[in-house]
């Protein structure tokens, strides 16, 4: 089931199937402030928090922050030795580059995209594209990455700014 590409066309977050986890990722780029950040979170089939992460990168494109969010999520899955993880992103471009179209050497993110594709295959994860409404919690985490002092943080508990969104996702 690795590198399978599908679309989540509903407009809200859906829990993964029993026995699976879901990683939602997002990137954030504020051009005027020259800030780029990313974040994500992993939840179980009941919407329960496993962990989250947020980080920032030197200013780059919004696509770069989306790809970094996916990459760091895959790295976290690998380090935690998690299995049966579906990854959701609301970036159709990042989704296509990693799962469908591939990338040539001239792309500025080619190395990172190839690492993401390799991780997907090795970890036997699959990726889906979702709408923004289905990715609100990851959006909060990505924006949090731009406000924190550290370059990268793993959150063992949900940040207070996220609690309402987590509750709303489970109730949807």
From TrEMBL:
CDD domains reported for this sequence: RNase_H_like (cd06222)
Domain RNase H type-1: 24-144
Molecular functions per Gene Ontology: nucleic acid binding; RNA-DNA hybrid ribonuclease activity
Pfam families xref list: RVT_3
Name of the protein in its database record: Ribonuclease h protein
The species this protein was found in: Artemisia annua
């Amino acid at each position: 089931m690795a590198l399978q590409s599908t679309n989540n066309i509903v407009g809200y977050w859906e829990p993964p199937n029993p026995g699976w986890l879901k990683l939602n990722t997002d990137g954030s780029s504020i051009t005027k402030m020259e800030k780029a950040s990313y974040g994500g979170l992993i939840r179980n089939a009941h919407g329960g928090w496993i962990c989250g992460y947020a980080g920032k990168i030197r200013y780059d494109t919004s696509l770069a922050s989306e790809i970094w969010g996916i990459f760091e999520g895959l790295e976290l899955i690998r380090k935690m030795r998690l299995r049966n993880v579906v990854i959701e992103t609301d970036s159709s471009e990042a989704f296509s580059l990693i799962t469908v179209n591939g990338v040539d050497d001239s792309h500025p993110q080619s190395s990172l995209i190839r690492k993401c594709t390799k991780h997907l295959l090795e970890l036997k994860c699959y990726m889906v594209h979702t709408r923004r409404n289905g990715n609100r919690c990851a959006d909060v985490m990505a924006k949090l990455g731009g406000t924190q002092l550290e370059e990268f943080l793993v959150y063992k508990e949900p940040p207070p700014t996220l609690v309402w969104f987590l509750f709303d996702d489970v109730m949807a």
